[in-house]
Amino acid sequence: MSQKNSEGRRSARERLRVEQERHKSVQKRRRTLKVGAVVVGALVVAAVVGVTVASQTGGGDGGESAKPISVGRASAPAKLTVYEDFRCPACGQFENTYRGTIKSLEKAGKLKADYHLVTLIDGNMGGSGSKKAANAAACARDEGKFSQYHDVLYRNQPAEQNDAFASTKRLFQLAGKVEGLDSAAFRKCVTSGKHNKWVKSSNADFRDSKHQATPTVLLDGKDVYGDQSHPLTPDELTKMVERKS
Predict the structure, then answer these.
(1) Is the four-CA dihedral 54, 202, 169, 27 of positive or negative sign?
(2) What is the CATH number of the domain that holds 100?
(3) Domains contained in the chain, number
(4) How confident is the model over 14-40, as pLDDT tens digits?
């Protein structure tokens, strides 16, 4: 038993070391790149390095699949599927770069976005901020404020090693930035972990899928973000969606 525990600790330390080295490598490459057109390339590198599924353990409840949180018109001709973790730096980069484009296409009725919230950073780095932020985002969905709160979380994303979203106090502070969200019902939902089972199932769905990193971004089922040889830009995403309209 003690030998297994020792091996488990060494394995966990090794996974953490690998993730930290990957993060440092990405940051170093970003510092050497010039600002401008290179930004898109850096985003893709971050997306590919991302957070791998391999070291995540656990599973869903009863094998049930978790429905994503959808934004936009249900009958939109194009569907964007996004798998992301609120603690994932590459996910924050994706959201902060493509947010305006996605919202514009949703508003025009051309695109629906399905969000699958996962907890890979919690599994790889330790902590509970991914889970608690995902639950809080689902609570915001209950109040009709998912998009607004989702964006606030990414705009205020802590460093990857900082598990700030594990604090309900911090989640409530950020809810205060969304008009009408910080209510008694929202606070009860967050505090009780009302949607923790859904978050666990959502993460299990992603872990069991063929996808390997966050963010994974699919347009009508096709990966449009993870190919370094064909980096996605906001303009290209707009063109691809409009061709389906």
Answers:
(1) positive
(2) 3.40.30.10
(3) 1
(4) 555 544 554 444 443 333 332 333 333
Q: Angle, to 10 degrees, between the axis of helix 184-192 and the axis of helix 168-175? A: 150
Specify whether the CB–CB gap between 206 and 118 falls below 8 A: yes
Helix or strand (DSSP H, E) at 133:
helix 129-142
Distances from the Cα of 161 to the Cα of 19, 39, 121, 131, angstroms: 11, 23, 9, 15
Distance CA 187, CA 140 (A): 10
Rounded to two decimals, what is the model's pTM? Answer: 0.75
Provide the pLDDT confidence category of residue 64 given band limits of 50, 70 and 90.
low
Q: What is the pLDDT of residues 141-156, one digit of tens each?
A: 999 999 999 999 999 9
The parent domain of residue 193 ranges over: 2-242
Backbone angles phi, psi at 76, to 5 degrees: -60, 145
- CB–CB of 88/121 below 8 Å? yes
